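Take a look at the protein record below and flag anything odd:
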Amino acid sequence: MKGKHILLSAALLACLAFSCARVETPTGASVPDKGWLFLEKGPYTLTTKVNAAPGPADIVLVKDLSLMAAEPEVVFTGKADIAADSTLTLKLGKLEPGFYEVRLRDSVRWNIGVRPDAVVSAPDPQPDFWDFWTQTLAEMDAIPLEPTFTEIPAYSNDVRTCYEVRYPSWGGAISGGILSVPVAEGKYPVYLQYMGYGAEPFYFDPSASPDRIDYLVSIRDQGIFRDTLFRWIDRGLAAKETFYYRGAFADAKRAVDFVTTLDKADTDHIVSMGESQGGALTFVAAAFDSRIKAIAPAVPFLGDYPDYAKIVWWPVHEVFDQADADGLDRDALMTMLTYFDVKNFAPRIHCPVYMAFGLQDPTCPPHTNFAIYNNLGTRDKRYFCVPTCGHAMWQEPSWDAERAAFLKQY
């Protein structure tokens, strides 16, 4: 999930003029939505530049929730004239909140969004959802934390010291991460960073942030513990008790427990962030632990399994394939997955949230991001869109600046 996936032709550029909505951000910048994200009620007009020859063009608009269907749902069919300067202007009329794929002459495709904060994807937790998680965390709490620290001299200096950390978590599995702590005496805010699915771990520049503690969390079998199988989403599908993410979500909470034991941690100022799987873990950790004061997840994974399967193939259909190979009942499987659907954790999140998404994301599509966002328990929330970005939000300097400005407040 670390590749950059964009549905756009390389030369397809959004128009920065015309009547694009503008959104104020924590950095104070005013960011244009590039004409692909409609924030007000319709009717809507699509105005953009395209990598296509001038002249008449057939255009089809397909609902994202039908992209995996044998016959995708077409909500608009029309013709437009592409101007000599490659500008396309098309009146779309009114559209329901959600996300749509634009298909131009069957050769150019990209996504647009309509009122994403009005997308409806209701939580569907089982009656014992929180009992299950309360029991899981209680079992973990019964295991002494007992962390071990291994100093990493190559990433330590007279400003901050780096350690690889290990400690037991739920079920006795080992989790931990990479810790960078200021050398000088004092109390420091803590930045928790959760990692993407199978992402390579990295070490912090010891001189880059002398005024904070950084902790890169490694959940079981990933990060500094990554095993050779390189797939986790289909492990233990037979029951909620055995599914991989039971332990992984517990590890996300264990990381909060760990940093609060550090002598130099200012436990009133813990914030967290992460992209993709890291975004999911960021949400889950905040639902489990109110000691996290603000979160900045991006392109979050594991939101809304039923609709996920309607939009993109991976990962849900890979889960389906494994379940079928194991002879598991499909309905029972989907019920089991509700215990690990991040949208079902969202109502328990009450801290400030700033979520980023890529409008062209084919890995964690925007609908699944907003299935989480629109169910958050907090009113102090905002989102940031990079319209041309696919899944690789970590490569977007604008998001780095936004996230830094947001988290610094807390």
Observations:
- The CA atoms of residues 187 and 264 lie 5 Å apart.
- The chain has two domains: 22-118, 129-408.
- Residues 244-259 form the longest helix (16 residues).
